[in-house]
Hints:
- By secondary structure, the chain is an alpha+beta fold.
- Helices cover 21% and strands 43% of the residues.
- It contains two helices and two strands.
- The chain has a two-stranded antiparallel sheet.
Amino acid sequence: MKSIYLTLLGLLFVAGQVMASPKDEKPVPFTGGVVYSLPETGIRVTVEVEQVKFIHGPYYQYADKYLGIPNAPSTDRESWKITNVSLILTESPILQKSILHRDRLLRL
């Protein structure tokens, strides 16, 4: 019975240690200087396409005789055509790669 109490007491002690959280670090106040961030270039691609679907009907074999449409397709088909492509370059800073330079002149 004593071993059960000791085990429960040990578990409570370990759980209390796990639940304790470290102190939050306060951010250092900005006291002057230049912040430089490495750039990240992104490319936005926009593609416009045109889709044409042809679905043959049940009477495609009579298209030439009754409608005057020669060589009517006997199977369904689908075609795609690219009508427009545009590329847009975007730049944004990588905030995780920022550098604080405290000198008065920043030499790049």
